[in-house]
Amino acid sequence: MSVISKRALAAASSFSTLENFYFHSRYGERREDPQICDFTFGNPHEFPLQGLVDAIQARAVPHNKDWFAYKTNELEPRAFLAKAVSDELGLAFQPEDIALTTGAFAAIAVAFRLVLDAGDEAIFSLPPWFCYEAMLTAADAVPVKVNLAGERFDLDLAGIDAAITPKTRLVIVNTPHNPTGRIYEREQLSALAETLERASARIGRRIYLLSDEPYRRIRFDGRGFTSPAAIYPWTLISYSYGKVLLAPGQRLGYLAVSPLMPASDRKIFQDNLFATQMAVGWCFPNALMQYAIPDLENLSIDIDALTRKRDMLSHALLGAGYDVLPPEGTFYLFCKCPDDDEMAFWNGLADRDVFVLPGHVMEVPGYFRISLTASQEMVERAIPAFTAMAKAGA
Amino acid sequence: MSVISKRALAAASSFSTLENFYFHSRYGERREDPQICDFTFGNPHEFPLQGLVDAIQARAVPHNKDWFAYKTNELEPRAFLAKAVSDELGLAFQPEDIALTTGAFAAIAVAFRLVLDAGDEAIFSLPPWFCYEAMLTAADAVPVKVNLAGERFDLDLAGIDAAITPKTRLVIVNTPHNPTGRIYEREQLSALAETLERASARIGRRIYLLSDEPYRRIRFDGRGFTSPAAIYPWTLISYSYGKVLLAPGQRLGYLAVSPLMPASDRKIFQDNLFATQMAVGWCFPNALMQYAIPDLENLSIDIDALTRKRDMLSHALLGAGYDVLPPEGTFYLFCKCPDDDEMAFWNGLADRDVFVLPGHVMEVPGYFRISLTASQEMVERAIPAFTAMAKAGA
After folding, report:
1. Most B-contacting residue of A15, A254, A271, A276 (CB-CB within 10 A), to test interface
2. pLDDT score, position A21
3. Domain identity same for A356 and A219
4. Does A201 contact chain B (CB < 8 Å)?
5. Residues B336 and B249 in one domain
6. Element (H, E) at B268
7. Nearest C-alpha in A relative to B12
8. Which residue from B65, B250, B272 is facing A286, i.e. has the nearest CB?
9. Neighbours of A337 (CB within 10 A)
10. Please, are residues B345 and B339 in contact by the beta-carbon 8 Å criterion?
């Protein structure tokens, strides 16, 4: 008899690689050290956007006695977002399609709770976001993993199709994709939709799609973005302001139901958002952050500066002989280690005060991820270390 | 085959009575109307505490580049709270015992996830907080309900003991108790601890206690407070700042592990808080609210003003012939309807612009709850309506 629940232990176990890296590795020891060049996580390395600070201060001033009363899916931010997201994605969202959440984590937790029962299977692609597996496990669902395909990490439609069983209820697509930086284009998404349509018919139950899009606004080279919600009607979107504002500590996002969903199904989702959000742990954003949504919707980190960091690092890494996947979106650079000994490489960089995210943490040993949220100064300081380690590995 | 998960539907179903009351009743139609005397929920009816506004504005100013970076159980607020809660409850909390959460909802969700597996039973008392059942159901756990005992709504120890089965894993105690206003004293809690100790031995697994204490600071007549965590070592505490600050929209609270828990068990809880909080949906308070904890810890609504409202209303209700349970804590008055027709009484009050929480919403038909967070002006305006309805019912 275990002291705590089996599902909490299983979630902790599937999260332990990342947790160990974060708290107990050489990175854990040095992550507060200003001397290091920190390319690990998508955290800010420059001061917050002034617009965010201004919005918080302005919205802290109460306009009425209900200013800090219980807030759920409030009418004003919902209506505002329905319009804004409709304009952005070319879909006709109703306010009732939008569930306001404390970031994408909560949106994903609500989606899992809404569509998955205990024992249901959810498919996601490797390399994955760190937390899908732990969150599914904690929700008594069964994580099913399919590798992305080929050198460019495309969706493996045949692999996804083969992984579908009568228990499959959800397929997760993360686009723009963390960590590879890929943006899945309309043709791939259409082919995925056809696969899911055929598979749903085959197994006799509807397979839903969760489109996890927190990096949707962070794109390079003028690329467009197509949401899977515009292609496959049974799609839920999870979104966070944490990336585009580079303020992941402020917990603001939403879950949105595709307006293409047949009306009767869509109504059932709309009608059950509130109770599910409550039951997951009242994961509505706090009052202040709800008021700030109109202020924050058009704020963004400097994408041009991000592009310059991408270009400088890509150029240096390619020049040193690294295999770099050119990112189309996100703020990550995804690269191959110079040889098979990922940790020797990682330790060599760490010896030089440069910290990247090692592939084994992302279930893709032999690769590493660079977060371009590091400062320009860190980028410049790190290039000699990357160059030295390329030679060491060659 | 249902469109959404069976557990989401079940949670929504067990929450539907409250949801219907809130959104679709005569109260739902009029809850924004300034003409009504609103005694339904524990929401503010006066402007927020200036100290809260000041704290938010001050803490919005970034001190460093990490100001709005990812925050988990941050060292400073954890250490601050370990000291503060130790002083308050007379227990020796370590920082590692404290899980910072977005209010008590999230603390409860984390507690459920930590100790309950699918099919495990959790016992709570009626009348209950509205959301235990839906949250348990959504977590695939089994809610088991035991009525509070007698005219004073004491814990029914024999009833709890009889409800314990080999699948029982958790007993929830809410003290001070919503809606009755009771504070369970040391002797009752000691007897409960003995019951749980014996029952744990009998069934061969440890039964945990969740002490849900969001009203802990709101007490009348100089009464003390004993946390069950000081009596039964296998206790988790859920706490929220939402009540004492009357700012439930700002989502700040914590889950705390009793320092009396045997060291090896306590360590397992400490070590698994982080992953469980992540898996529930990253339910850490946002950065801003974490910084504000030291500012907020000693802020409170005006308990003297609350006491005056309690006294004025109690006096008027008793004078009119109502059966009122004198509240020891919380900001509620719990009363019997004048006759068996609860909804006729409720509608009579509503006809007079007075809205209370009807008993059937709390699984205790024939009673009603008055929230003393209503303004003094509402209290005065409502008294003739209560008096009229007492006569109507008599």
Report:
1. A276
2. 95
3. no
4. no
5. no
6. helix B263-281
7. A275
8. B250
9. 24
10. yes
Of A244, A267, A296, the last residue of a domain is: A296
Give the pLDDT confidence score for residue B221 in this predicted structure: 97
Examine the domain organization and report whether A194 and A114 are in the same domain. yes
Dihedral (Cα; B238, B243, B244, B249), 10-degree rounding: 100
Please indicate if any CB of chain B lies within 8 Å of the CB of A237.
no
B300: tokens are: 């409170």
Mark the ranges of chain B whose per-residue pLDDT is less than 70: 1, 392-394
Please tell me whether residues A40 and A185 are part of one structural domain: no
Which chain B residues are Cβ-neighbours of A19 within 8 angstroms?
A: 274-275
Name the H helices within chain A: 6-19, 26-30, 50-59, 75-89, 103-115, 132-138, 157-163, 186-203, 263-281, 287-296, 303-319, 342-351, 376-393
Reply yes or no: is the peptide bond before residue B179 cis, omega within 30 of 0: yes
Structural domains of chain A, count? 2
Last residue of a domain, one of A296, A325, A343: A296
Question: B46 vs chain A: nearest CA distance in angstroms?
Answer: 5
Residue B1 placed within a domain = no
Look over chain A and give the mean of its residue pLDDT values, rounded to a whole number: 96
Question: Nearest Cα to B136, choosing from B37, B15, B52, B252?
Answer: B15
Range A327-335 average pLDDT: 97
> Using 50, 70 and 90 to split pLDDT, how confident is the model at A230?
very high
pLDDT reading at A372 higher than 70: yes
Of B3, B7, B45, the CB nearest to A265: B3
Q: B281 and A105 in contact (C-beta within 8 Å)?
A: yes
Q: Identify the domain containing residue B349 by its residue range.
A: 6-46+301-393
- Quickly state the pLDDT bin for A344 (edges 50, 70, 90): very high
Taking residues A76-89, what's their average pLDDT? Answer: 98
Compare all CA atoms of chain B with the CA of A119 and give the residue at the minimum distance: B118
Cα separations in angstroms, A215 against A78, A174, A238, A258, B247:
21, 9, 10, 18, 32
Q: What is the pLDDT of residue A391?
A: 76
Domain match, A76 and A213 both? yes
Residue B212 placed within a domain = yes
Nearest CA in chain B to A203: B1
Q: Is the pLDDT of residue A103 over 90?
A: yes
> CA-to-CA distance for B190 and B187, rounded, in angstroms?
5
Q: Does residue A245 fall inside a structural domain?
A: yes
What is the nearest CA distance from A151 to chain B, expressed in angstroms?
31
Residues 6+ apart with CB under 8 A from B25: none
Partner-chain contact B251 A117, CB within 8 Å: no
Is residue A1 domain-resident? no
Q: How far is B95 from chain A (nearest CA, A)?
A: 16
Please answer whether residues B382 and B354 qualify as being in contact, where contact means their C-beta atoms are separated by less than 8 angstroms: yes
**pLDDT value at residue B391:** 76
Q: What residue type is assigned to position A133 of the chain?
A: E
Min distance A268 CA to chain B CA atoms (Å):
7
**Residues 165..194 of A with a Cβ closer than 8 Å to B: which?**
none
Average pLDDT over residues A8-35: 94
Region A210-228: mean pLDDT is 98
ipTM of the complex: 0.96
pTM over 0.95: yes
Quickly list DSSP for A274-301: HHHHHHHH--PPPHHHHHHHHHHTT---
Regarding whether A268 and A162 lie in a shared domain, the answer is yes
Q: Closest CB to A69: pick one of B7, B248, B287.
A: B248
Q: What is the pLDDT of residue A392?
A: 64
| Beta bridge pairs of residue A125 | A146
Our CA angle for B91, B95, B98, nearest 5°, is 80
Under an 8 A CB cutoff, do B12 and A46 touch?
no
